[in-house]
Amino acid sequence: MRFAKPLIRTGPTAAAAAALALSLAPPAAAAGISVSTSGSTVSVTTTACTQINGSWGTASLLTGSQATFSQGRQVALSGTSAGQSAAWSNVSRGTYTVIVMCSNGNTAGTQSVVVSSAPTSSPSPTASPSRGVMGGVGGSSTDYGTVTLVAGGALVGTGIVGAAWYLRRRTRPRRL
After folding, report:
1. Are strands 141-142 and 73-76 parallel, antiparallel or unpaired?
2. pTM of the complete model
3. Are 112 and 91 in contact (CB under 8 A)?
């Protein structure tokens, strides 16, 4: 019969065990960026960049055959001091590397991502308003409410009925 003794580590032994465990752990994702995919869209977020002359920086999406930041598909970061982001749409299946370069020249991080969905061959339909008219000055759109549409319809209907009544009345022969 064997008796097990509890293994108690203290001092330098515990520190060495912790260092060994950390060295054997898989590498953590880049601390400065977070990369995600949704279908054939790749997006990256970071909080590492600061705005300089109106620019937060640039993110680059590199294929396996591309080696430098400038060779990838570059997108300007947008956002606020709370966080910046960039996205690439219609990305083909494969493994990519995302690099974020802040406007001050520092690299916020580098991370690999796998895209498993193929891009759609036709462009996705654009959203249209359920009511109202798209367009206007400067590409703005106006979405009218139900009350406005009902009131406008009532005015138009009243105008049509009034016009028909007036024209009918004018076309009757007058009796003397």
Report:
1. unpaired
2. 0.51
3. no
Q: Which amino acid is at 8?
A: I
Alpha-carbon span 129 to 45, nearest angstrom = 30
Query: Rounded CA gap, 90 and 42, in Å?
Result: 9
Question: Side chain identity at 31, as an amino acid letter?
Answer: A
User: Over the Cα atoms of the chain, what is R_g?
Assistant: 32
The pLDDT tens digits of the residues spanning 5-59 come to 544 445 554 444 444 444 444 444 445 899 999 888 999 999 999 999 999 999 9
- pLDDT value for 75: 93
| Strand segments (E) across 63-125 | 73-76, 78-80, 83-88, 94-102, 107-115
Sheet holding 73-76, edge to edge: 73-76, 57-62, 94-102, 107-115
What is the per-residue pLDDT for 161?
86
Higher pLDDT, 5 or 111: 111
The one-character DSSP state at 55 is B
Q: List the one residue out of 110, 87, 90 whose CA is nearest residue 100.
A: 110
Say how far apart CA 38 and CA 43 lie, in whole Å. Answer: 8
Q: Are strands 57-62 and 107-115 parallel, antiparallel or unpaired?
A: unpaired
> Would you say how long the chain is, in residues?
176
